[in-house]
């Protein structure tokens, strides 16, 4: 009899091809692609964690999560004509991996 145990951990790689476009003076459309190599996922993908904050640091970081099938998110209700830093991480049941970012 062969017995095998899998050890799941957090992802060790980032989503790729981040891109962001302003769709209005108060909204941004963010897109990304999944991890380039599923070897670095180390478990079952549960979704993506998106964090965003003003580059000037005046407001705290906000977090939004999406499903594992989502590769696009529109952030609305942002401050008018302000630059934001956007981060995307993949996550499993064990937690989230490193982030990729775009300003």
Automatic annotation (TrEMBL):
Domain Fibronectin type-III: 14-103
The protein, known as: Fibronectin type-III domain-containing protein
Pfam (any one): fn3
Record SUPFAM superfamilies: Fibronectin type III (SSF49265)
Gene3D superfamilies, per database record: Immunoglobulins
Transmembrane segments annotated in the record for this chain: none
Entry superkingdom: Eukaryota
């Amino acid at each position: 009899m062969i017995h095998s145990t899998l050890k799941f951990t957090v992802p060790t790689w980032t989503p790729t091809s981040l891109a962001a476009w302003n769709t209005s003076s108060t909204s941004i459309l963010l897109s990304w692609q999944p991890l380039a190599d599923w070897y670095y996922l180390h478990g079952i993908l549960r979704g993506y964690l998106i964090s965003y904050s003003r580059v000037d640091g005046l407001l705290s970081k906000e977090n939004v999560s999406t499903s594992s099938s989502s590769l696009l998110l529109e952030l609305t209700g942002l401050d008018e004509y302000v630059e934001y830093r956007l981060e995307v991480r993949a996550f499993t049941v064990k937690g989230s991996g490193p982030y990729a970012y775009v300003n």
